[in-house]
Amino acid sequence: MKSKESQFIGKLNAFGVKMSKKNLSKGIDETRILSKLNELVDEGNTVVLATVVETSRSVPRHSGAKMLILSDSHQIGTIGGGEMEARVIKEACACMDDGTSILLNYELVDPVAGDPGVCGGTVTIHLETYMPNSKILIIGCGHVGRAVAELASWLGYHVVATDDREELAEGVTGADLVIAGSIEDALKQVNLTDRDHVVAVTRNAELDIQNLPHLLSTEAKSIGVMGSSRRWETTRSSLSSAGISEQDLSRITSPIGLDLNAETPQEIAISIVSQIIEKDNASNN
User: Fold this and answer.
1) Distances from the Cα of 36 to the Cαs of 73, 147, 248, in angstroms?
2) Which of 34, 88, 108, 274 falls between 20 and 30 A from 185, CA-CA?
3) Calpha distance 262→168 (Å, rounded)
4) Checking DSSP bridges between strand 66-70 and strand 75-77, what pairing results, if any?
């Protein structure tokens, strides 16, 4: 059986040049870079993987060379250094902003004409953005909270469940992290970004009134509160009297979930998670 490397030798690249063995990266450092990529994403980082996919003539790195770029422009590995690499890092940061992947083509011939090098060759680099799974913070580990945790986990969300009642928190299955304690305790351990969601399914309005000011101080993409319209009116009035602005209050959805005439905890969970999916898909279009 031919090795993966030998399958490419002798074939034409995008520039019409036959690929020879010397035009392929050795791949040793690249394997370590891929392992680091998985590690960084698992830790919650957004990372761009830059891979040299095609080259011709003289270039600093060949096909297969890889580099990682983090959100602070820190890099791991190299695809050749110099001005070309600086431009790639700038393009990678732009990719992180909207989660896109792109192909970059560079001529390394004439810096006076704007080329990022003088090696004499051409290179194509693929930038691929990797983002951690969006988080769902569930506040309240009763019947509905547990059903939401199981469904959201099945759908691939990173699920965090919290409740101030330790005996209920310990009974949650499906969550990646369970925190028994106050909302302050939870937010010390969980950083909510503008890709993450809050599902408040607590036992009474008093808890919502206590928790929501802390949740509004985060960058959470959505904050949903379970309960009747009347319960929300009570909660909203108390928050407004406490100085919460109308702009902040408008970030809260209550009652949470799509109107499916849901009754059971599982049906309510479907309505809640469906609404979250709807918000995510709307922002991706």
Assistant:
1) 16, 34, 38
2) 274
3) 23
4) antiparallel
**To the nearest 10°, the Cα dihedral for 200, 201, 206, 209?**
10
Distances (CA, A) of 276 to 40, 110, 197, 279: 25, 50, 7, 5
Domain regions of the chain by residue span = 4-130, 135-284
139 strand-pairing partners? 162, 200
Phi, psi (deg, nearest 5) at residue 47: -135, 140
CATH code of 135-284, in short, is: 3.40.50.720
C-alpha closest to that of 279 among 197, 158, 159: 197
Cβ contact 211:162 at 8 Å: no
Q: Tens of pLDDT along 150-188?
A: 999 999 999 999 999 999 998 888 899 999 999 999 999
Where helices occur in 155-264 by DSSP H, the ranges are 166-169, 183-189, 205-216, 229-241, 246-249
Lateral strand order in the sheet of 135-139: 177-180, 158-163, 135-139, 197-200, 222-225, 252-253
CA distance 90 to 87: 5
Match 């983090």 to its residue by tokens. Answer: 70
Give per-residue pLDDT as tens, 190-223. 999 999 999 999 999 999 999 999 999 999 999 9
| Nearest in space to 83 (alpha carbons), one of 49, 48, 113, 53 | 113
Peptide bond into 255 cis (omega under 30): yes
Q: Which residues contact 112 (CB under 8 A, 6 or more apart)?
A: none
